[in-house]
Predict the 3D structure of the following.
Amino acid sequence: MDSGRLPEHGSPEVTRDRRAGVPPPELRLPVAASAALPAGLRVALAHDWLTGMRGGEKVLEVLCDLFPRAEVFTLVHVRGTVSPAIERHRIHASFVSSLPLARRLYRHALPLFPVAVEQFDLDRFDLVLSTSHCAVKSVIRRGDACHLCYCLTPMRYVWDQFDAYFGPARLGSVASRVMRPVARALARWDAQTANRPDRYVAISQYVASRIRRYYNREAGVVYPPVDTAFFCPDSTAPDGTALIVSALVPYKRVDLAIEACRQAGVPLRIVGQGPEAARLRTVARSGVEFLGTLSDEEVRAAYRRSSVVLLPGEEDFGIVPLEAQACGRPVVALGRGGALETVIDGVTGVLVPDPSVDSLAEGMARALSGRFDAAVIRRHAERFGRERFVAQLTAVVEETLAGRAGSRRW
């Protein structure tokens, strides 16, 4: 699982394999069921917040099934916003969850997150498994316990996307100046606590490179699980529309998709909610439909109806493109980040070179006029299925526990 032994995703051999539809090296790992984990293993699952079912929560859902007696620790828990598979576990929320307006404005409590995660009492647990994109990779565990961090990404807001979240165009010049030293302090804390996990596992080679850059730690790669049994094709014919399924936050660049669809004359449906919703509604014109939060069944139906699914922002991995491909639909994505590992240009979709309206509109034109084989697209997505994720991550957990075998208490 050492990412240093795998070819880089920009290398000639990986580029050649991708064009041929061959999966990248991580997906060629054996997926045979591994030995059972130690009996009596006490497991804590740490997740930044539970406020909706996005990609990270779908990973947590699988972990909750894998560890049915685990307890869940999170900064904010809004009851009823995550699946029953998560809700049936014992969930411990931090004091942030009790703050006024925490349901909608928990991100405004960002400066409090370091204090909150360090107050979790994890002394009872032998294994801490964190799924982190913000702060929970820095929880404090018992000295002889193991902490494996399944890193969704290092904190975007404080490392390389400050302006997207807190820049003058977002907050105004005064508030942005106030946030800058706060972000610097959080970045220092994030780096200083990077050694708290025993091991990092990244969701993509792209995230592994970010972990190396910001934390000076190496990380293997286990791609997140895609529910390819649920997301599957049916007889629905595509209706000529484009679809976005996304949290409505700045880095997703939904505004680009709105303008590109207007320029291309393609109707657009948008599934999701988030702090950008009100602003996006003001820039959208006719031909854009905001569907809000939908059930899984409704999202699947939306994939099946659409002619193309859009990913206009730079993603760390991106579950949505693979769900769409599992339904046999091509994806138009920015050719950076995780999309380079999940979309095969010209085979399962179109990769566009830059985050611009013109580039995205041209990519849609290519996708809508091209001949894509739904069966080939579907087979590609199947390589990212749940069974592969469970087998690979369980093997990593066992290996990590074995590395600390001398200090086990179970």
Summary: The chain has a mean pLDDT of 87. The first strand starts at residue 43 and ends at 50.
